[in-house]
Amino acid sequence: MPKRNDIKSILIIGAGPIVIGQACEFDYSGSQACKVLREEGYRVILINSNPATIMTDPDFADATYIEPITPEMVTKIIIKEKPEALLPTMGGQTALNVAMDLAESGILKKYNVELIGASLKAIKKAEDRELFKTAMKKIGLITPKGILAENKSQADNALKEIGLPLIIRPSFTLGGTGGGIAYNKDEFDDIIISGLDASPVNSVLIEESITGWKEYEMEVVRDKADNVIIICSIENIDPMGIHTGDSITIAPAVTLTDKEYQMMRNASIDILREIGVETGGSNVQFAVNPVDGRMVVIEMNPRVSRSSALASKATGFPIAKVAARLSVGYTLDEIQNDITKTTPASFEPTLDYIVTKIPRFAFEKFKGSDNTLTSAMKSVGETMAIGRTFQESIQKALRSIETDLDGFNNIKIPGYKKGGDRSSISAALTRPCPERILYIAQAYRESFSVKEIHESSKIDPWFLEQIEEIVNIENAIQNSKIPNSFEELQFIKSKGFSDNRIAELLNIKPRKIKDLRDKYNVRPSFKKIDSCAGEFDSKTPYLYSTYEETYNNKDDLTDESKVSNRTKIIILGGGPNRIGQGIEFDYCCVHAAYSLSKKNYETIMINCNPETVSTDYDTSDRLYFEPLTEEDVLEIIKKEMQKGLLKGCIVQYGGQTPLKLAKALSAADIPIIGTSPNMIDLAEDRERFQKLLKKLKLKQPPNGICTTSKKAVIIAKNIGYPVLIRPSYVLGGRAMEIIHNEESLTNYINSIITLFGSNPILIDRFLSDAIEVDVDVIADKETSIVAGIMEHIEEAGVHSGDSACTIPPHSLPKAVIKEIEVQSKILSKSLQVVGLMNIQFAIKDIETKNPQIFILEVNPRASRTIPFVAKATGNQFAGIAARVMAGEKLSSFKIKPWYKTKKISVKEAVFPFARFPGVDSLLGPEMKSTGEAMGLAQSFGEAFAKAQMAVGANLPKSGTLFISVKDTDKNKILLLCKKLIDLGFNIIATKGTSIYLGENNIKVKKINKVSEGRPHLVDAIKDGLVHIIFNTTEGEQSIEESFSLRRAALSAHIPYYTTIAGSKAATEAIVAINKGELTVKSIQSY
């Protein structure tokens, strides 16, 4: 069937800010859908509140709405744009839930908008747990025994009927939000309450526990003509009980017999037919009892999912692109395979390699969090590696995850001493956690058998045998010493061993292994991911490395890289997503590829993140899906330098990951374009940077550098408490803290030395009550232009990635802005910046005649604010800067001045605190946010209100405000109280604040702190009597006392502001909401 001509315009709903369970895989799928549908001639309208995704760039859709993704806002866009169709399957659970709401409320019918990609009936059948069970029963498939509950009473009845342990799955949620496994009644009660709360339809499925069973996924695509293909099978190494997003997974599945695979394949196809998915991709999850082979269906997603992104990158089959075309009427046989350019999309992909995905976690960011993995997802990113064998693939994946692993590194097992009681090893193997895969290897080193490890971990013996062989090879390396032949070294490398790991086992320097490989000519060969296992010639250079044994050891006969004679630029990506280094850096890498390819450079991307746009085979001219380590990157560069001219490498776009490689690249005489590594190091090296600022006569907060707690105490005494303290050479404020006294300082230093070794520790005087400002600059050696000045809404002390901020600045005097611009240009010139630079300032005494401007830090590289600044100012800075780095003059580009904008842009962060029970939600200098949203409007209040809506903080129009502020803030709160009372708010406050407000003629009711007896504030929050909270604290005791208040507010979804600046912004937003309806406007129309 040809494409539909009765549709002219299509509305696509994006996924919104990146959160745990819904990450940048939807940036990838949404971008693909926009691209494809525009190619097909449709007018594309997009709504997405995420400024960091490339899909919200104005070039990706005809009308781009950076607005909160709510039924109300989407309705306004429908009324304005009059689309004929709505595609909800590219924006994760967020898009699906909003589309369902619009369909069920009659909005789509009222405005003649057709759902494409998935019908309402199909969405409901797949997402509603009870309807899904009924559908499976109808086609003869088994689901775990389960009962749907819509309240606590029904849940208790289900508990009696099924019995513990139980798995609780909330309906219509993402990443297992609110769900979990209950082993006792207390856990059951807690999970039921959180599950009912998390489900938008207030229902949970309570199922018999099948933890320990083997888990599989099938990625399936079906069209309207009932052509169905399996893209790939995915096997979880971890057994059931762990969310698939948190499991180590491989593709294709390896422990199924052919008969079992065919049963699962047939079941997947039957499920798609029964559910009614006929225009796109779906993910179906199965569990198999390893004892008797019983197979049950867990769930299916009637949309592009996290696993779809993985399956696309694993096979080269562009699921999102194909699904978008199917949604407008094409059939699979009418769509060409992009990779081969000769076969149709109806050919099932074939893999002649193994792909391993390992999730990346951020438990270290959340003190007190439990790192046990359950059915509720907790990972913040993932990496993918490709090898010819499982052993090669998993060892590459381990070194890709960027947690300082070189493979199966030795690890200390908690509670175990060499030769001691082995029960602590069994306990470590039983508990699912991020380190368990390493504990398995360590257990072999402590003489555990495959059988013992299987009994504790329930991981399939096949995987355990593979890991056992790796440990046996490690022992052989240690016993036989340095490899002394081509065959020996080739064999070790073919098992996935890195030079670093071999060197560590032999207690020598990695350079010696590199020299040995040079001596014996042991080199990787590069293979294509071609979707057909070499059956057809692939036209797309999508490559991975392998050390598999080659024919007669002749690499040139098996290498498929086909290096070109062109002038090349290599872009190093950012690796797995994590807090502090997210999608914003991928955005910059993608723009570098786009802009440099247009200037006829051959762009070569190296990255290992399966979720991102940078690892799409059509983003750059050539893609290497490889770990971002010195060894792996240098091998690729060596291969690419065999022909053509390497203009240089870009290391300043992928965050800290490529910057760490800059010295090694320079040492290997690899050209680096942009700001020199020496200048990047000058900005990172505190002593060198201090000297530069003194020479330039620019201010820094009083500070010092130390490597011991003794020296730290002396420095802190000299500069005065509180102090801001952190290790050097880290990203995302890792381990940064505000310290109030000597005891805390000594404890901190001692813990940090074990984590970060001999790197210097930086101590600054903490500037309380200062306003923080972020500045992005673009420069060549002659010219520098301020790209944007962002005023933080939280005071200094909250990490810039966690603070809301606004362009243009909301309260800075013009003279201060002018001086910031002057200082930014001085720094840019002094550091000889070529490309992008980010500076963080703190402004003190802003109300006085002589405000003080302090420089907090300078990063001569792309920063996480670049996508936001690009959208706020209408300039594509990442693309422009890449061309400047390649040698073009900045003066040749037309750049709109950042301050000449017709809109106010507010960025707000989104946090994962709800995923980590017991963790404090108070913000500080260490970054904790997973993503961000943007609010656009013509007034600050409206823009801030939209940004709050977009991250799920729904501001009340009226109700009860609770206030408790520190003494220095009391006079600043009066005006806010008056404004909110005028809007009909009631005010309650703790004793000190209520006395002060009463003395100043503010009507207020006193309420107890938790420590003052009941009924207290937390009781009022739980009873729904509080609607918004302003709470500022000072000192460790005050912060500790207000912890229960913050957690209660988080559980009750109450907007909570911990700074005066944040409280002021919220007040302005509430005033704006009360004045009238929020309007919608496309970014192209500003």
Could you describe the 3D structure shown?
- The structure is a single chain.
- This protein has 1086 residues and is α/β, with parallel strands linked by helices.
- Helices cover 37% and strands 19% of the residues.
- The protein is built from 38 helices and 38 strands.
- The protein has a 7-stranded antiparallel beta sheet with strand order 14-13-10-11-12-15-16, with helices on both faces.
- Strand 30 and strand 31 form a beta hairpin.
- Helix 5 packs across helix 6 and helix 27 crosses helix 28.
- The chain is globular and about 80 Å long.
- The two termini are 39 Å apart.
- The relative contact order is 0.07.
Which structural traits does this protein have?
1086 residues; alpha/beta; seven-stranded antiparallel beta sheet; 38 helices; 37% helix
Biggest sheet character: 7 strands, antiparallel
Number of strands: 38
- What distance separates the N and C termini? 39 Å
- In the sheet with the most strands, the strands line up as 14-13-10-11-12-15-16
Can I get a quick summary?
It is built from 38 helices and 38 strands. By secondary structure, the protein is α/β, with parallel strands linked by helices.
Question: What's the arrangement of secondary structure elements?
Answer:
Blueprint: E1 9-13, H1 25-39, E2 43-47, E3 63-65, H2 71-81, E4 85-87, H3 92-104, H4 107-110, E5 114-115, H5 120-127, H6 129-138, E6 146-149, H7 152-162, E7 166-170, E8 180-182, H8 185-198, E9 204-208, E10 214-222, E11 228-236, E12 249-251, H9 258-275, E13 280-288, E14 295-301, H10 306-315, H11 319-327, E15 354-360, E16 381-387, H12 390-400, H13 423-430, H14 436-445, H15 450-457, H16 461-480, H17 486-494, H18 499-506, H19 510-520, E17 525-528, E18 542-546, H20 555-558, E19 567-572, H21 583-598, E20 602-607, E21 622-625, H22 630-640, E22 645-650, H23 656-659, H24 662-667, H25 677-684, H26 686-696, E23 703-706, H27 709-719, E24 723-727, E25 737-739, H28 742-756, E26 761-765, E27 771-779, E28 784-795, E29 805-807, H29 814-830, E30 835-844, E31 852-859, H30 866-873, H31 877-885, E32 904-910, E33 931-937, H32 940-950, E34 960-964, H33 970-982, E35 986-989, H34 991-999, E36 1005-1006, H35 1017-1022, E37 1028-1031, H36 1036-1041, H37 1043-1051, E38 1056-1057, H38 1060-1075
Parallel strand pairs: 1-2, 1-4, 2-3, 4-5, 18-21, 19-20, 19-22, 20-21, 34-35, 34-37, 35-36, 37-38
Antiparallel strand pairs: 6-9, 7-8, 7-9, 10-11, 10-13, 11-12, 12-15, 13-14, 15-16, 17-18, 23-26, 24-25, 24-26, 27-28, 27-30, 28-29, 29-32, 30-31, 32-33
